[in-house]
Amino acid sequence: MSEIENRRPLKVRDAKLSQRFARWLSQKNVTPNQISLCSVLFAMWAAACLVAIPQAQGPVTWGLPILAAVFIQCRLLCNLFDGMVAVEGGKSTPSGELFNDIPDRVVDPLILVAA
What we know:
With 115 residues, this protein is mostly helical. The chain contains five helices and no strands. Helix 3 (32-52) packs parallel to helix 5.
């Protein structure tokens, strides 16, 4: 069974916009491992926003949760695109599985603890 057939089916992966963006990333010489590391940055920014909420005043009080939600979505998009660039873009590496899984194991609890 090929790597593409063995993947969990996601409708968003079949969306034309997702495919075009993944293709664009692949053509710009962005590696899946770089995308995985970028997801860590988005998660850290989301966690920082969540941690700062109790000290926030004024409009920042409602802006921080919105910003955190945006960063969480960006982190999830990175998780989508690292796989698409690796598999569909043909850029998988021997270390790719580690770069795909290890950041997820670290940043998801980071966001949950910050919340």
